[in-house]
């Protein structure tokens, strides 16, 4: 996946971003990265990424917050931990990728119409609202918010799933959702909360 490279300036940096990420559990060793590139060489998906894992580590350390949060890389990471196992400085790269994904959803900064973050956001919002996931509605929302043409391509399969009862249009929800909301309230500002102000890339 190629992105259009642009020159980055000091003014593009968001001071304190690196420190914030490094203060999270499991992310503190990032400061010892020697930019050896082992993680990029190990990563089975780096050829599809816009920035390699090594570049993501460098961008985070240099406070290029928007560059990182808008990248496809953090969403393409399959959490296989190969990079983490091989890193000579024992940096938990996979955990850093998780922290960046969580941050991107929190702040509503992610690649516009890229299905993976859209799915993550819609999934967590539905789980928080209903306590259950209704697959049909989730897929519909995903298509509408990422690529509505996929709906046209998949209508035949969807109809078949509805006919055979594998999919239902009836929303599923749990009882006593207020208790779920109370349980989730301590983390509402973190991973489960849909962003208040979405800033698409
Ligand atoms: S393998 Fe570790 S030290 Fe080397 S570039 Fe990646 S994160 Fe940095
Ligand atoms: S955990 Fe993610 S970044 Fe690391 S090797 Fe696997 S896919 Fe690549």
What does this structure look like?
- The chain has 201 residues and is mainly α.
- The protein folds into 2 domains: 98 residues, Orthogonal Bundle (Fumarate Reductase Iron-sulfur Protein, Chain B, domain 2); 73 residues, no CATH class.
- Helix content is 50%, strand content 0%.
- It contains 11 helices and no strands.
- The C terminus is likely disordered.
- The site of one iron/sulfur cluster has 14 residues, from helix 6 and helix 7.
Global structural class: mainly alpha
Radius of gyration: 19 Å
The backbone outline, from C-alpha atoms, is globular
Order of helices and strands: HHHHHHHHHHH
What is the residue-averaged pLDDT? 87
Low-pLDDT parts are 190-201
The biggest sheet, with number of strands, parallel, antiparallel or mixed sense and barrel status, is:
none
Distance, first to last CA: 16 Å
Oligomer: single chain
CATH superfamily of the largest domain: Alpha-helical ferredoxin
Strand content: under 5%
What CATH first level of the largest domain would be assigned?
Mainly Alpha
Bound ligands = iron/sulfur cluster
Short account of what is shown:
This protein has eleven helices and no strands.
Task: Identify the notable features of this structure and list them briefly.
mainly alpha, 201 residues, Fumarate Reductase Iron-sulfur Protein, Chain B, domain 2
Describe the secondary-structure layout.
Elements: H1 17-22, H2 38-42, H3 53-61, H4 65-69, H5 73-76, H6 82-86, H7 93-107, H8 115-130, H9 135-146, H10 149-163, H11 177-184
Helix pairs in contact: 8-9
The structure holds iron/sulfur cluster (SF4) (2 copies).
